Amino acid sequence: MSELYDLASAKYAMYGVDTEAAITALKAIPISIHCWQGDDVQGFDTTGALSGGIQATGNYPGRARNFDELCEDIAFACSLMPGVKRLNLHASYAVKPAGDLSDRDEVKPEYFRPWVDFAKKQGLAGIDFNPTLFSHPMVKNGLTLSSPDEEVRAFWIKHCISCLRISEYLADEMGTPCLMNIWIPDGFKDVPADRLGPRLRLKDSLDKILAAGYDKSKVSVAVESKVFGIGIESYTVGSSEFYMNYAAKNGICCLLDNGHYHPTEMVSDKIPSLLAFYDKIALHVTRGVRWDSDHVILFEDEVKEIAKEIVRNDAIGKVMLSIDYFDASINRISAWVTGQRALEEALLYALLLPNRDLRKFQDEARWTELMALQEQYKMLPLGAVWEEYLRREGMPVWYMKAIQEYEAGVLSKRV
Ligand code: RNT
Ligand code: ZN
Q: What pTM was computed for the model?
């Protein structure tokens, strides 16, 4: 143990906070690592551009172009990310046998066996899954599950049901439940003539997907709302109100992506609202800069607030955490690591807060002390505890040297 850590520990102890307990708790919080940061959300089943109102910008060299390269990159990134890690996959990352021309509606569990083998070999704690309802020719006029075209709806319903089977398979194989999250890009660029019709069709499609049945002890189904996307500015079918009501009435989960709300709307404030009603909630942690830009997460205020709401409400086991961003303008592995570490840092920050005292100040209306203590606390030696945590996880504090070596030895050869 370093001298610096000992001093930090003593300092936190003055506030009644145990740094050892915080490190132990942090180490056990699973974070699902999104596979799509490694290849700019390309996937393996289409060659076309990314669509659906989401965009990865930049052309930094070294993008993973296939399963082997993506696995190599994820494994390396994981070697620099502390804590318990899960893997978050999209259906578009199916590994099909050569010559298999089946479409997304026929996606099968066996296509994910190579991922299961990889995850087990890497010691990942589980796999989460997402049907992929974008970047595909069956997204017609920008619509999927809410399309007025019955054939389009049927295709995507079948896709989602196939994904339920894959999610069950992943849960069986990994021995931990799988979160299956549905996000659709459906919406309109300009003022719609009918706002209700698409939502009723989406509701009906979701009903049909859930009616297919799935093992609830193995799979949690979540729906991810959004306010708008690029090219889909005026109306989004899967809005926050729509999905919150749908999830509440149908016993499924809400997934909150903190890039998916108006800029002054805070996901940190939504977490306790949902905790009052739901056993479980899911998060996509990202960083929106002026819009849902999916920048790399940094150790910033809103991420800290999100972490605080999870920790101080004893909701660590109730909130399923995934990271979700895609930056193609910098080294993609560094992007993964910086973002995952920022979320871990925020969780550590939250775990080290004197939450009992702060709550007492609030309950006793001691606003002056509440403000002063919250501010003073920001100056405590968090970095020393963070470095000790990394040391115990066997990871370097400054990881750029490893990234640069990997870039020279592996990424730069991908031409
Ligand atoms: C899009 C959503 C969605 C995607 C991934 C690829 O705005 O955030 O979660 O980022 O599914
Ligand atoms: Zn998301």
A: 0.98
